[in-house]
Amino acid sequence: METRDLLKQAKEATKVLNSLDNTKKNEALLAMAEQLILNTEDILKANEIDIKNVEGKMGNVMIDRLKLSKERIEGMANGLRDVAKLPDPTYKAIKEIERDNGLKITKMSVPMGVVAVIYESRPNVTSDVASLCLKSGNVAVLRSGKEAINSATAIVKAMHEGLKKVNLPTSLINLVSDTSRESANEIMKAVGLVDLLIPRGGKGLIKSCVENALVPTIETGTGICHIYVDESADFDKALNIIENAKTSRPSVCNAEEVLLVNENVYKEFLPLLKKRLVETREKNKVELRLDKLSKTVIDGVEASETDFDTEFLDYILAVKVVKDVHEAIDHINEHSTGHSEAIITENENNATLFTNLIDSAAVYVNASTRFSDGGEFGLGCEIGISTQKLHARGPMGLEELTTYKYIIKGEGQVR
After folding, report:
1. Has residue 197 got a pLDDT over 80?
2. What is the three-state SS of the chain?
């Protein structure tokens, strides 16, 4: 189906979805989850084709983002089940006002309509988006990158089979088969057909959508995430958090890219850091990109001017020594992409200063930035992590996929 025809189909399907109650939507989500499990072998075969197509073109870290396993598919199914357990965010009274003239005004949460997501090489995004859209009363338009199109097609086929089992049309979840740049541009300019566009992927994709889209667009994802080790930090706590934030899954947007260390502790702390991230790791040793002061204490690659403005998405960490919490805050606010930042400290005043002055969507005290995730925040899963301030910020779940309208009831009042 041509992209514009698919968008028209999606718009028409909003009428069906808006008529469903919470029970029916949950029934659909559970059927879709079951079908993902039943179709595991087909999904894995499709994923193998995608993996073979990118071998030699992608690094191992990025291939890990693309690769599926039985465990990951089960995780996708559990994500759908988790969303089914959440309250329905639609058609709820956000606020009720009764005026002196007798007018009763209700601010009511309602679905956006058609939500389009353009994404790259993470097949699990397919089911995450579909589940959140369905639960929040939005018809999903999925436009996968060519790297993951076979996986996405198999996942959508399974979810369509789930919809059929509960007698719902497959047009509630739509996959764009055309992975060309033209199809992406068509979605970006589909005024009147797409109510919200969310890009999920690299800096280039996000920049293209933000700069070229004519439909409402949310800027997401790019994460130059910082951790600052304060002079009062517990070193064991800091090392555990940094190792998790940098190495547990470096290809994701909530992974740490920059480490700032207070000048009063860097001589003691940095050798411990190198031992943890480099010397004692048998594989996937972290390449440390060091500023001048750091390099006087430990060996590593000398940091370039661009290293503190780079989302590495790899086993690379830029390290800089700062004078105090104030310099750390200034550096982060200048170089951050507004995603997730953390302070490791035992000083409550510094923690409060950091959380108040850091201008990012998620700010942590003594915890890993890897928690910036819809599932970890209790949202079931996420449709993206917004790094802007309107209308949503941080991990976007069901509530962020609704807007509102006013319902006004009167008895003949005129103004």
Report:
1. yes
2. CCHHHHHHHHHHHHHHHHCCCHHHHHHHHHHHHHHHHHCHHHHHHHHHHHHHHHECCECHHHHHHHCCCHHHHHHHHHHHHHHHHCCCCCCCEEEEEECCCCCEEEEEEEECCEEEEEECCCCHHHHHHHHHHHHCCCEEEEECCHHHHHHHHHHHHHHHHHHHHCCCCHHHEEECCCCCHHHHHHHHCCCCCCCEEEEECCHHHHHHHHHHCCCCECCECCCCEEEEECCCCCHHHHHHHHHHHHHCCCCCCCCEEEEEEECCCHHHHHHHHHHHHHHCCCCCCCEEEECHHHHCCCCCEECCCCHHHCCCCCCEEEEEEECCHHHHHHHHHHHCCCCEEEEECCCHHHHHHHHHHCCCCEEEECCCHHHCCCCCCCCCCCCCEECCCCCCCEECCCHHHEEEEEEEECCCCCC
